[in-house]
Amino acid sequence: MEPLSAPLLGIGLATLSAAALAIGNLLQARGVHTMQSGTVRGSGGSQVGRLVRNRAWIGGAALLGVAIVLQMGSLTFAPLMVVQPVGVTALVFTAIVTAVIAKRPPAASVIRAIGVCVVGVAGFVTVAALVSTQHAITDVQLIAVLSVLGVVLALTGLVCFVGRHRRTAPIVWVLLGGIFSAFVATLGKTVILRVQAALHATHFTLDAQALLTIVCLLGIGVAGGLSIYLVQRAHASNRPEVVVAGLTVIDPVVAVILGIAILGEASTAPPWAFLVFVVAGAVAIAGVFALSRAESAREQ
User: What are phi and psi of 95, to 5 degrees?
Assistant: First the structure.
């Protein structure tokens, strides 16, 4: 069965997902900072208990759920490497909403950094839309993605262990949150394609393929849970713009690497396209670090 293909619809849904992601993260950041300041009503109890009683944080969590649903919808109609980078528009939405709330325009350095991110991702998406292909994912490819996830889990455990004894740079939590978010999207894409194939076959059997799909769902749960946890840690020590940058730039860069290296979405791409991918990805990541520096300078 050929996967559904409607790139424009996929890009549209990804843009709506980015808007929900931006507003959801702003609300969650407000909730986390309110909890840290101890101003939330009924400030006793655990940090988690205080968060779930915070309306801003709950509203943000609901919008993040909407963003995930829209993101999965976009992955139904277009290749991973086309729709994931579109999420960088969340940076633009974040800058606009923040400026409206603060009643002042963002700093010039922040605008430049966001512009760098957008330019890098826009170049990536344009080329990806022209050269990418969407096809069924094999068991071997899925096992490879799960294996890479296992390695990343081990490295994250090492980072957390080391972080118990020394201060971890705030940007690290942003990067890790974006990385695990990328695995949610990548594994989600595989589940979508497998469900489409099962519906087309009109029958279901609990064979090795079905069991592997269940493992994939468990992987989504683990990666999603860690992404949520790490994003909350990122909100505690970074401005919302930096957190959104990590989720909308690091996420697609990692997802695209997985899409190219393992899922074969660029198997028919010409050599020049890979050069564009490398350069555009490097520009986008440079924009994230520039944004982090710009926001840190504003706080000093």
Answer: -60, -40
pLDDT digits (tens, 9 = 90+) for 49-70: 666 677 888 888 888 889 888 9
Neighbours of 47 (CB within 10 A): 12
pLDDT higher than 80, residue 280: yes
Among 246, 245, 237, 121, which residue's Cα sits nearest to residue 177? Answer: 246
State yes or no: pLDDT of 209 exceeds 80. no
Q: Provide CB contacts within 8 A for 36, sequence distance 6+.
A: 236
- CA-based R_g, the chain, Å: 19
Q: What Cα–Cα distance (Å) separates residue 108 from each residue in 61, 88, 103, 294? A: 30, 19, 15, 9
Whether the Cβ atoms of residue 101 and residue 250 lie closer than 8 Å to each other: no
Residue 197 CB neighbours (<10 A): 14
| Gap between the Cα atoms of 208 and 268, Å rounded | 29
260: CB partners within 8 A, 6+ apart: 81, 266, 274, 277
Distance CA 297, CA 300 (A): 5
pLDDT at 298: 62
Which has more pLDDT, 101 or 158?
158
* Cα–Cα distance list, 182 to 108, 129, 271 (Å): 30, 19, 25
Q: What is the pLDDT of residue 286?
A: 83
Whether 249 and 287 have beta carbons less than 8 Å apart is answered as yes
Instruction: For residues 195 and 170, give the distance between their C-alpha atoms in angstroms, rounded to a whole number.
Output: 38
- 42 Rama class: left (phi>0) / alpha (psi -120 to 50) / beta: left
User: What backbone torsions phi and psi does residue 265 show, to the nearest 5 degrees?
Assistant: -75, -15
> CB burial class (10 A; 0-12, 13-18, 19+) of residue 293?
middle
